[in-house]
Structure to design on (1043 residues):
């Protein structure tokens, strides 16, 4: 794809993520959606930059803040929205919800509500990918809060030891739930852990889409070539609280204002105005298109039926297939 | 009649399934070297260390790895060296393996077999002797099986591997070298969820599993000449339980004794008692009895750990207690 | 001082090891660390080193012996030193005895709380039966723990008030067991029956030929049924489903062919077992049949005489019965009912002829096989009967 077209495509994907999360927030406020919601507004560059290198049959796993990862991996936004809204037409028939999205048709294997729980699972997807011999890779997203878990450390060791085709994408947004990372660990650059386990690691500005895109391009190529795992730490920021309803009083307003300056979408748009000749009208049309697609998704979810009561305890076990 | 040990039967089952299905992988500490008890001996030689994989001592991550691999198409068998260490993998097993099929609305299947070894044997103390089957049976989405004889060991390990769900396959360490009739090459799978009535009787049903099956059969043989005819049921599958067989038996005998080596409170016995009394209350001719280990950690000393293993003598005492006549003392 | 050579514990879950061989002989001088014997566990073969310097003496375990871990198997003595007499065995923790069981470590048997409650105690089943049988529990004597009324007490109370009339014929133990098993078989097994008339001439000819030889050799004269049992057993070799057990929803093929033959004992019938009947010649079967009959009459049947049959042959020919159907004895899956040999007019080569015929009726458990299974078995039996010398 020519660079100018690629830039416009990446901008459109970031807008789709942003519009999705803002719509979820809006529907939560109006009680169309309930539950424990963790939005990734402000972190779009990481999801989009990372997933833009992936094939449909590559595997992606995420955590509790993973709507955007599923959207960026190409999952159907209608079925995602319906799932988060608990509707029968959702990807999981309403049984998964916001924190447990699965979209296997897009290679989004699972998200999990247990901090760090997705990282060992991603080892397994990478293990199967390696054994399958089709140059598939696995990518796992997690936050800085997972970096102090046993699952994280055990998994770095195994991925490195077995040279699994896995890219660790750490979204270091500086806050583990409500507490700044500095209160959780002395090692605030999580990439340093990867280095101690013998894995190539990079720390970069996660709000710079092209920085993420370039680093992930190299990381995915290395994994796909059978050269083992790579760790990419993206310094970013969530512009919302830990969950919807969290007033985030623990953050200083000046800090938030500073991060808004670094809004990855606005930054990228400014950059490609000069580099790829993006006009304001074009930008406006891209945003409007994304918002229209998400509005469709929202209407689809709202109009969808609730799951049948009989479904509550089905699919506890799989039949034999 | 060809004989083999329970351990050999498990190995044979693993071997046959690995030969049958290239998606079957073995993962665990030292499994490529045979493991601490030699269950997996020879598998690495037969199938290579690509498929019989030694892992670091990272139960949580390895369990997650196996689950993740199962989610995208493999059929891993993971060995946790002692059931006591399954605690280290409980997040992955309980929050992920057991729930992913459900939470994904059926998009994911987790055909995972978790081999664990349990029980009091060899004076290993409180962290290497537990029977934790009730914890696992309490989790929707997990299946739990445990064999008492070589033929079932082979049949159940094959069933576990072929099942599209996570199955915890519990091996009692004290039975590894117990010999019995071999199932034979290519033998059929033992269906999960079916108990076996090993001895028919009229007066009391003894329901148990694992090592206590032999003790129950010995006790029943000793009771018969005294006019107490005991029916012995090997549960084999603890999740799901074969309530049809249990209830049918209790309807006939009117009495039930459940025996397990796990501590008494909150054990499988409690679940069975609850469900049997619901289904067969008006057929009960006496209270449901339970024989279990004291509610205590397991001591290491050989002078103490014996109090935690029921056996023939305790079963005889429990059964005779149920038939004790008024004024007959005791 | 003499040093004990012990069978070392090599495995936490086993209790003994097998002595494969001594690498040193009695009287040989050995040094500490030198390999002196080889032992085997289920997992490995291990060399055992001398625990000290000395002369190997007092070997107590030979090659091939399975020895408990910790037992002394030899000694290392010094020049002129005698082998100690007593085996200084490891003192194991005291054997389990009820009196040493400490308070609180009691294995938990959840027995019902006892004590007087003022209320009458009756089991749920006893209460239900009392209602069904119209028994007033107030008048029932409770024989259970703490005087609890149990189902048997209610039944006894109900029997006591049954109107009398006619006479009650009490059954002996054997008859009661037979009755229960028959009822169980009939209730639980879906029976079906396949019948066939067989030409008895070859069988009669065989008896006429064999009987004198066997009697002359001091044996028991074989009956037609003995010959039939011998043939049936051989036919069963190629029909494993008919010689199977039905256990918990699956068919278990029996490794041996152990034919049960019905023997009348007074008012009851017991089934005596002819083990591996397919390997016994008619003379041996006749001898076994007589042995079973004699023991049955004397009331001295051993459990092995009457348990574990894999197929039953029941013959009522001696009572003049032409044909009948029989009930399968679980866990067996088939029974052959044999009628008498009778002259019948049959068509032979297109002409009516009088020929001795015998009817056999196979009852088969329909869970194990269908009509084809039964028919093929009977066809092979007919073939074996037509040419008995081929299989005997």
């Amino acid at each position: 794809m020519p660079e100018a077209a690629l830039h416009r495509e990446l901008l459109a994907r970031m807008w789709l993520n942003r519009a999705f999360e803002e719509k979820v927030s809006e529907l939560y406020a109006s009680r169309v959606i309930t539950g424990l919601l963790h939005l990734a507004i402000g972190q779009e560059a990481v999801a989009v930059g990372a997933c833009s290198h992936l094939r449909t049959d590559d595997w992606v796993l995420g955590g509790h803040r993973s709507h955007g990862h599923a959207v960026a991996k190409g999952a159907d936004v209608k079925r995602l929205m319906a799932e988060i809204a608990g509707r029968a037409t959702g990807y999981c028939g309403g049984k998964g919800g916001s924190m447990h999205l699965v979209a296997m048709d897009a290679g989004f294997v699972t998200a999990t509500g247990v901090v760090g729980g997705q990282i060992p699972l991603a080892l397994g997807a990478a293990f199967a990918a390696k054994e399958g011999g089709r140059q598939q890779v696995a990518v796992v997203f997690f936050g800085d809060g997972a970096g102090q878990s046993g699952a994280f450390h055990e998994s770095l060791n195994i991925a490195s030891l077995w040279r699994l085709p896995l890219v660790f994408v750490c979204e270091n947004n500086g806050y583990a739930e409500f507490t700044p990372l500095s209160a959780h660990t002395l090692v605030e650059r999580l990439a340093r852990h990867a280095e101690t386990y013998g894995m190539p690691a990079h720390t970069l500005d996660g709000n710079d889409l092209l920085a993420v895109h370039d680093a992930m391009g190299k990381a995915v190529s290395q994994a796909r070539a059978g050269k083992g795992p790579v760790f990419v730490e993206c310094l970013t920021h969530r512009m919302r609280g830990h969950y919807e309803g969290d007033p985030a009083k623990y953050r200083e307003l000046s800090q938030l204002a500073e991060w808004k300056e670094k809004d990855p979408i606005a930054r990228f748009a400014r950059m490609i105005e000069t580099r790829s000749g993006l006009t304001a009208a074009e930008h406006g049309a891209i945003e409007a298109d994304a918002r229209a697609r998400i509005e469709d998704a929202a209407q689809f979810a709202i109009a969808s039926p609730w799951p049948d009561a009989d479904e509550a305890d089905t699919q506890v076990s799989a039949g034999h297939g | 009649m060809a004989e083999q040990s329970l351990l050999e039967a498990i190995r044979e089952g693993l071997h046959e399934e690995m030969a049958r299905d290239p998606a079957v992988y073995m993962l665990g500490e030292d499994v490529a070297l045979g493991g601490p008890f030699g269950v997996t001996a020879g598998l690495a030689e037969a199938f290579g260390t690509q498929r019989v994989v030694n892992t670091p001592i990272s139960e949580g991550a390895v369990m997650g790895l196996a689950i993740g691999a199962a989610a995208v198409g493999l059929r891993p068998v993971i060995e946790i060296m002692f059931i006591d260490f399954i605690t280290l993998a409980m997040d992955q097993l309980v929050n992920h393996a057991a729930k992913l099929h459900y939470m994904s609305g059926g998009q994911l299947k987790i055909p995972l077999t978790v081999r664990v070894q349990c029980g009091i044997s060899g004076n290993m103390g409180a962290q290497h002797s537990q029977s934790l089957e009730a914890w696992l049976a309490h989790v929707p989405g997990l299946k739990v099986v445990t064999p008492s004889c070589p033929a079932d060991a082979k049949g159940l390990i094959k069933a576990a591997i072929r099942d599209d769900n996570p199955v915890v396959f519990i091996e009692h360490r004290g039975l590894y070298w117990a010999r019995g009739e071999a199932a034979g090459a290519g033998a059929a799978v033992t269906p999960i969820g079916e108990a076996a009535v090993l001895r028919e009787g009229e007066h009391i049903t003894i329901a148990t599993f694992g090592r206590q099956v032999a003790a129950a059969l010995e006790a029943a043989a000793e009771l018969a000449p005294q006019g107490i005819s005991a029916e012995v049921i090997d549960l084999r599958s603890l999740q799901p339980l074969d309530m049809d067989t249990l209830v049918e038996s209790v309807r006939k005998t009117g009495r039930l004794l459940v025996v397990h080596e796990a501590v008494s409170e909150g054990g499988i016995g409690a679940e069975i008692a609850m469900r049997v009394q619901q289904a067969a209350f008006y057929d009960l001719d006496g209270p449901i009895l339970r024989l279990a280990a004291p509610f205590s950690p397991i001591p290491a000393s050989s002078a103490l750990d014996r109090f935690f293993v029921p056996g023939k003598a305790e079963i005889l005492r429990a059964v005779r207690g149920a038939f004790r006549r008024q004024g007959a003392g005791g | 001082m003499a040093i004990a050579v012990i069978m070392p514990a090599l495995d936490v879950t086993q209790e003994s090891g097998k002595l494969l061989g001594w690498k040193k002989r009695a009287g040989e001088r050995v040094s500490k660390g030198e390999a002196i014997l080889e032992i085997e566990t289920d997992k490995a073969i291990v060399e055992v080193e001398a625990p000290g310097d000395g002369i190997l003496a007092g070997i107590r375990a030979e090659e091939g012996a399975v020895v408990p871990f910790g037992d002394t198997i030899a000694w290392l003595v010094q020049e002129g030193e005698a082998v100690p007499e007593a085996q200084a065995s490891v003192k194991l923790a005291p054997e389990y005895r009820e009196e040493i069981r400490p308070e609180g470590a009691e294995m938990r048997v959840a027995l019902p709380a006892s004590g007087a409650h003022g209320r009458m105690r009756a089991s749920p089943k006893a209460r239900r039966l009392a209602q069904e049988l119209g028994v007033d529990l107030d008048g029932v004597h409770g024989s259970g723990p703490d005087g609890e009324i149990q189902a048997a007490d209610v039944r006894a109370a109900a029997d006591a008030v049954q109107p009398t009339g006619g006479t009650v014929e009490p059954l002996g133990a054997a008859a009661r067991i037979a009755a229960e098993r028959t009822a169980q078989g009939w209730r639980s097994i879906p029976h079906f029956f396949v019948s066939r008339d067989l030409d008895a001439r070859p069988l009669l000819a065989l008896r006429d030929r064999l009987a004198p030889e066997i009697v002359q050799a001091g044996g028991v004269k074989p009956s037609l049924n003995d010959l039939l049992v011998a043939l049936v057993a051989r036919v069963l070799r190629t029909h494993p489903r008919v010689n199977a057990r039905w256990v918990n929803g699956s068919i278990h093929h029996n490794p041996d062919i152990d034919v049960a033959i019905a023997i009348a004992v007074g008012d009851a019938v017991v089934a005596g077992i002819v083990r591996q009947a397919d390997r016994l010649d008619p003379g041996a079967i006749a001898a076994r049949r007589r042995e079973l009959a004699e023991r049955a009459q004397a009331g001295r049947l051993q459990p092995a005489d009457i348990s574990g049959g894999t197929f039953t042959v029941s013959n009522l020919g001696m009572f003049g019965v032409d044909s009948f159907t029989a009930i399968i004895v679980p866990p067996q899956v088939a029974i052959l009912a044999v009628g008498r040999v009778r002259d019948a007019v049959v068509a032979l080569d297109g002409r009516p002829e009088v020929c001795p015929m015998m009817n056999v009726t196979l009852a088969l458990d329909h869970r194990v096989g269908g009509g084809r299974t039964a028919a093929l078995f009977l066809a092979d039996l007919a073939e074996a009967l037509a040419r008995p010398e081929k299989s005997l």
Remarks:
- The domain at 175-391 of chain C is CATH 3.30.559.10 (Chloramphenicol Acetyltransferase).
- The longest strand of chain C covers residues 334-348.
